[in-house]
Write a structure and sequence with these properties.
The protein has about 500 residues and is an all-alpha fold. It is built from 28 helices and no strands.
Length: about 500
Amino acid sequence: MYSLAALRLQLHSSTTLARRYFCSIPHLQSQPSLSLQRDDVERTFRIITTSTDPQSLIQSLKSSQIPFSNDLIDSVLKRVRFAHSNPLSALEFYKFTSRRKGFFHTSFSLDNMLYILGRSRKFDEIWELLLETKKKDQSLITPRTIQVVLARVAKVCSVRQTVESLKRFRKLVPEFDVSCYNALFRTLSQERSMSDARNVYHGLKHEFRPNLQTFNILLSGWKSSEDAEAFFGEMRDMGVEPDIVSYNCLVDVYCKGREMEKAYKVIDKMREEGIDLDVITYTSLIGGLGLMGQPDKARELLKEMREYGCYPDVAAFNAVIRNFCIAKRLGDAYNLMDEMVGKGLSPNATTFNVIFRSLYWANDLRSSWSLYLKMKEMGCLPNTQTCMFLMRLMRRQERVDIALELWNDMIDKGFGAYILVSDVLFPLLCDMGKLEEAERCFLQMVEKGQKPSQVSFRRIKVLMELAQKHEALSTLSEKMSAFGSAIQIKKSYVDDLERPISDISY
């Protein structure tokens, strides 16, 4: 016999499942055409980025008559994330759609919203949103959610604070198990250091039983092959048998340490155990051969892969292209990119950035600009690193014309981090006496919900005072004040541009 409470719980669960089911069935939703949905995404994005306050934002959303499906919301939040738009406006949009009767967000939307908030250090809003999500649909809070939040915490807080943040999830997730700890270790390994991740592991391992994924996370990124071998042995001592991911981690550390003989011994061991090499294994070998100064031998691995039924992906081609860039054989790098396209693979921003880095070090703006135009022609959106390579070269060579063209592309298409790139653009414009252009770019940035840095504002302010443009300066000052405190950009990201191509991971 069911108790009355149990019966109520069952009825509530059935109703919730039914709502979610009917909300997510494609033919029961109004499904606009692909082009119409793209238009709706763009309209919604414009509402979010141009509304001056929450009230006008909500009113514009209500009067827009846009059908807010899960797919559309996912696309809008992805667009907001990519464009570095105002996080609080995005949160108002998220809450507005969440309040609709019978509507449930997807985990993808929740994680994107949390990422957007975390990037701007809106941690109070993050925990508030998680509490609201727990009340409405706790199943949306997954180990991936934990990793998204912890990654933003780890970027600006201490290791101890990151661990404390994990503990807050005990009351938020449906089940606090080893996958939650694994999210912490992955975060620390990516955002802090592998040594931090392993130290925390040794401090917490009495609280849970590590599984294969735990060891695979902690195996990656070793600098010392001796340490990796010792940890590999600890895994086996605990009765955890390695899989292809475990072996790939070992191959990777040997390749990065230029210990190719040891790497090939692991390959032999894998084959003895009946484990087929995958594209990740081959990509590590390609990178190792490049570090050994053997780019042609690495390229031959692309053919060997196919013979074993393992087809190279974009990352594998990127590794070979990187090798040719290290060897200063850019012609071969360009040819390989064309070969990728011929095989039906689309070069990504990483593909282009490997070449951009070489051109940046060669101070070759002409070739860099040609490559950027080719990137646009192929429909590959640049990322922040692409923009920084180009803008720094333009500033160095005082090319205001194409610097403004790049900036306009960023504004129109919504790519790149405006704060970082503008810190290079504004000094160029000020040095060249282009005050009107600087003011226009400043206002474009503000319209996107992005606050220019104080350094850039001061440069423009000095010029405006000299030109006695007091009214325009007053307008810019008001817009700066409306943003409140600034978000500091980690200098390590900018300094990464100065690293030579051989120091970049494949």
